[in-house]
Amino acid sequence: MVTLRYHVFALLQVMFFFFCFLQDPAGIFELVQVVGNGTYGQVYKGRHVKTGQLAAIKVMNVTENEEEEIKLEINMLKKYSHHRNIATYYGAFVKKSPAGQDDQLWLVMEYCGAGSVTDLVKKTKGNCFKEDWIAYICREVLRGLAHLHAHHVIHRDIKGQNVLLTENAEVKLEETDYDYSGSEEEDDELNEDEGEPSSIVNLPGESTLRREFLRLQQENKNRSDPQRQQQQLKDQEKYKKQLLTERQKRIEQQKEQRRRLEDHQRREQELRRQQECEQRWAEAKDVQRREERCKEDKRAVEDDERFIADGAKPEPVRRENARKGSVVNVNPTNIRPQSDSPEIRKYKKKFNSEVLCAALWGVNLLVGTENGLWLLDRSGQGRVYSLITRRRFQQMDVLEGLNVLITISGKKNKLRVYYLSWLRNKILRNDPEVEKRQGWVSVGDLEGCVHYKVVKYERIKFLVIALKSSVEVYAWAPKPYHKFMAFKSFTSLHHKPLSVDLTVENGQRLKVIYGSLVGFHAIDVDSGSVYDLYLPTHIQGTIRPHAIIILPNTSGMELLLAYEDEGIYIDIYGHFTKETVLQWGEMPASVAYLQSNQVMGWGEKAIELRSVETGNLEGVFMHKKAQKLKFLCERNDKVFFASVQSGGSSQIYFMTLGQNVLFNW
Fold this sequence. Notes:
Its EC number is 2.7.11.1. With 665 residues, this protein is an alpha+beta fold. The termini are far apart. The longest helix has 102 residues, at 206-307. Among the domains are: 2-192, Phosphorylase Kinase, domain 1; 211-304 and 316-325. It is built from 9 helices and 38 strands. Helix 6 (206-307) packs antiparallel against helix 7 (316-325). The strands form 10 sheets. Strands 1-2-3-5-4 form a 5-stranded antiparallel β-sheet, with helices on one face. It has a 5-stranded mixed β-sheet with strand order 31-32-33-34-38, with helices on one face. A 4-stranded antiparallel β-sheet has the order 10-37-36-35, with no helix packed on it.
């Protein structure tokens, strides 16, 4: 009994160490799509991350009962899969699962792209093969079996589904169910390079068979592709109609919701006006009563004086009463509780050209316009200082810790970095040394920049930039370099990037997300592979991507993509995470994510405030007249935006958000 326990314990130890030392597949292989079901789990079409080579990946949950069988299968694959008629074994990996769940074992094998013999028979006219094809396949299968039998291994599941074909018409046995029939000593004595049995001979015209096989495969593909495309078109049309119907329904719901909010707002305003009128009327009546009382007191004093003897004085109390009655509040204060409605204020400065961007520098506001850079002093008298003239500023961000202002500026839309110390000295003029230095540097030789995003990952600051047909990723290099240096470059993209962001998947893998005129796309930074995240095919023509929002508390895995008058929730692999669709009441000119976990849309008739988690409407700010508004920046509870007026002039507003977000301005 003790010996048995010892052997069981030793076996468990071996199994534990065997699976512990297998690598995690993250960053080495990735799953593409399901292609079938194996004995222990699903079989996926996979891809090697760095080389892009395809592989068949069997994913299995590892339980204690199956560990020994799986280990035996892996050992068989390692020893006997290196043969022209056996699907080659590449390796095994273990993907760790959360506590309480079984780990996943990934067996990576050679990928046979033409499918199985059974699949080929079903696609062949008449569902049968020619005799010479059958002979060719049987010969290749027997070669593979002879290799296994020579090593005392029995294949216990020979059938058409386990006979695979590569795209070059090579026949491979899938290693699914083996049994070992000999001893290790016997196996070691055998020579692995032993010749093929004499009963297996070469078939005449083998190259002709291969060509005919490939021709048949192409014919089947040509015959099935139009049918598949026709079915896909039908499905797409049906799906488009469904999306359009749902979209119209959402728009009607939003209009009804807006109408109810407007009615509620009107009723509140009427109630307030009525209360103010009643209050003014009550105050006026009170004033009138006081004046009448004062007159009565005055007449009483005169009557008393008439009957009082010479030198007598009226009672002090009476005089005090008269004095009190004569105090009239000529400018009564409207006593109302402080409102928690949002406060919107406008700066006096009217800019002669359109305001394109802004960024907070301390408490002050840097403003970029069509023809220059300005500083709006928010700490004092609201003065405005001109810093740079005759240069267009399209986008900007202040990084005070690095002493830099990042901009897209100039006629050629170059990416320039300005030093804050140099800009500060242009106002104070107190440091001659700073004045002598050059105030800015270009980032690389980048021209034609469309959009950029600064992303902080651990201690590294990445700068991801969208250009006309490419995306560049730069990283900040600290002293002694103190500049952004090139990190990755992705050129010749099929779709022109208009907006761009960078996410870190589970704190490990960097992925660039960008929007174009047709939808949203992703780039795996490690492998350079580009794939579509979401294409809104139900919208005719081009789209306008507003914002890419990486949702909080999702480890960089989930996104809200805002475009046109709606937004959808997906993960970084293009799978929908919520059935909810964020639907704006009107087409917004710009959309922005706020630190309060809310998303704001600026329309011509109203500003809408919505929950970033659910897309529900949380507030509406109605305009008194239609106007074009643009989001600039935000910090804490203050949001800065600009209006574009007739003639191209602009003014800047700031909004302090409150609890009551139903407001008219």
